[in-house]
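Whether sequence alone determines local backbone shape is best considered at the level of individual chains. We regard such an encoding as a compact summary of how the chain folds. The sequence in question and its structure tokens are set out directly beneath this paragraph.
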Amino acid sequence: MLTALCAAVALFGVAYGVSCIPRRVVHSYEGIEFWVRGDSETAFLQTVNIHIDGRMRRRLFDPRYTFTGAFEIDAYPYSLSNEVTISLFADGYDLEGLVDYDTIEDGKSVRHSLGVLYTDQQFSSLAINLLDITKLEDGSSAGSHKGRVMAAPARDIVSGQKVLEERNLFWVDYTGLMHFPYPARPFNKPIKD
């Protein structure tokens, strides 16, 4: 009996230990940043190069995945040469989490919030619902989604929208309508305050 208990505890310890071993994630993508409004209006904003080099881990019994490492986007200088830690929560097949960069500017700590990342465990593709940051009168800032999205790998808006569909990303346009790649558009509805 004691031997079986010791074996069970040892097996649990091995399983827990193995679950804590981080997995290396390295990807480089060419992607696009574009703007979406309504059901069909889109506008290309810019091409982006994204480089990811870090470690992903998930502890046993923890619903969160944690990515730590480089998440660099050439169009956003604050993302270069800054290590980032992203807590990703499982949402069905996909993972989602807020991408924040902490930098030092003029001797002060500054947080740059890029947006909400949607990806899978392998980072095979990614979509980011970009935040627009507004400075308020009291010196604080607030972020909102205004239809700017980033998708990778993608070379044009059509392939970018395909990535959004893969990642099940929705966006909110300037009128407050929520848009989903699928199901069909009739499910759009205003967001209530």
Notes: The longest strand covers residues 41-57. The radius of gyration is 20 Å. Strands lie at 23-37, 41-57, 64-73, 83-91, 94-105, 108-119, 126-135, 141-152, 171-172, 178-179.
